[in-house]
Amino acid sequence: MYIHPTERHKLFGNDSLYRLTTGFRGDVAFDIEVSNDNPPNVLVIGVESFRFRDSRYMVGKNDPSNLFKDTDLTITPNFDRWAKRGVALRNLWTSIPTSRSLESVLFAQIPYDSAVKTGITGGKEDTKLSGLPQLFSAKGYETFFSTGSSISLDNWDVFLPSHGFDTVWDNLKVMELAENHYNISHDQWEGAEHRGFSWGAHDDVSFQILGDLLVNKTNNQTEQVANGERKTPLFITHYTITSHAPFKSWPKWYNESEKPDFSALYEGNERAEEIERYLHARYFTDMELGKFLDRMKDEGILDDTIVVIYGDHGTAPEAEIIYTEEESVTRVPGLILAEGRLGNAAGLKIEDAAEHYDILNTLADITGLPEG
Question: What pTM value is reported for the model?
Fold first, then answer.
């Protein structure tokens, strides 16, 4: 059993492979300034099918594997732009499908070893777990989960509210809010406007609703403090959905808009059509992520929010059969944004290997543990 020399731990027994990690020694890679008197909101964003290799900033200008075919292209210009302001995780790995990502990110679980089930299948109402929702609840946070996607698959709709989330918004709630506030009619979801698809509402809609939620909650927090009350911070987990296989749907307005010429990345490939569809879906979600972050910056929300962004898993549109061990499927980009809190660490790239289950301990270290 390999144990890194920086890890502090207790073994469960001399003949046991299990241990309790109690801390780490050595220099920290970076530090984020957080005040206990004014705890920041925390936003975790899982981006559907987001590969490490899509980001030029992550791959590097030299592009040693020539992933961008001797061009200066990037599929994710907005992610790249924001990554330069935060701490980028270049060596982050995951499991597929998304349910395994969810259990690892939220509860630091090693994914359940099954070809047909994940650790949350069935909802697991009788299984007690301690993870990010419980951590932040104990610290006095309000916990939210939001997505434009249906969450009935693998019983997310049962698992999430029974494992620490005070409020869960799925595709039905997002569509209801959009129809009530954004002048989107019910028939536009599946009509010519393509505001939605089989999985739910597209990412432009869900990011708009997520932004409104953050703005409204932050305004409420400001009022609390002004009235001499203790601030109730917010922990949100948000998952995107538009870039889900088979990458065949996006809004009509985006389909008609001008887009980069990605042909150098798929021409001549026997699966050129599949690759092209993926690239356009990936670019769309990146565009909406950029709009969301820009809005949050302009509204002053990012000054009071720590954001973690990661690919839930990758994908391989180049392959007819996707093998789960392929690097394009398992290596994903990661990013920590903390505007005004990083100091000289802004723009840092971390090369150390990490997995989704490292996010919990990282956020616990950044924000601090609850008393007791």
Answer: 0.95
Sequence-distant (≥ 6) Cβ neighbours of residue 328 within 8 angstroms? 51, 52, 53, 314, 315, 316, 318
How many Å apart are CA 52 and CA 45, to the nearest integer?
A: 15
How many whole angstroms from its chain centre is CA 107? 14
What is the distance between the terminal CA atoms of the chain, rounded to a whole angstrom?
A: 32
Domain boundaries, the chain: 34-367
Q: Please check whether residue 47 is in contact with residue 243, taking contact to mean a CB–CB distance below 8 angstroms.
A: yes
CA distance linking residue 117 with residue 345, whole number of Å: 40
For 121, phi and psi rounded to 5 degrees? -55, 130
Task: Kindly give the residue spans of alpha helices, DSSP state H, lying in the chain.
Answer: 56-59, 77-83, 98-107, 132-138, 156-159, 171-181, 203-226, 252-255, 272-298, 327-330, 358-367
CA-CA distance, 237 to 144, in Å (whole number)?
6
Query: pLDDT tens-digit profile of 138-166?
Result: 999 999 999 999 999 999 999 999 999 99
Q: What's the CATH number of domain 34-367, 3.20.20.70, 3.40.720.10, 3.30.830.10, 3.40.50.150?
A: 3.40.720.10
Give Cβ neighbours of residue 63 (< 8 Å, ≥ 6 apart): 56
CA distances from 169 to 236, 255, 336 (A): 11, 27, 24
